[in-house]
Amino acid sequence: MKSAPQTSQVQNLMTQRIRPDVQAMHAYVVQDSTGMVKLDAMENPHRLSPELQAQLGQRLGAVALNRYPAGRINDLRRALANHTDMPAGYELILGNGSDELISLLALACAVSAGSQKACVLAPVPGFVMYAMSAQLQGLDFCGVPLTTNFELDVSAMQAAIAERKPAITYLAYPNNPTANLWGDEAMETVIHAAGEVGGLVVIDEAYQPFAAKSYLDRLTRHPHVLLLRTLSKFGLAGIRLGYLMGPQALIAQIDKVRPPYNVSVLNCEAALFALEHQEVFEAQTLDICVQRAHIFEALTQLPHVQAYPSEANMLLLRVPDAQKTFDGMAARGVLVKNVSKMHPLLAQCLRLTVGTAEENHLMLTALEASL
Question: pTM for the whole thing?
Answer without folding.
Answer: 0.92
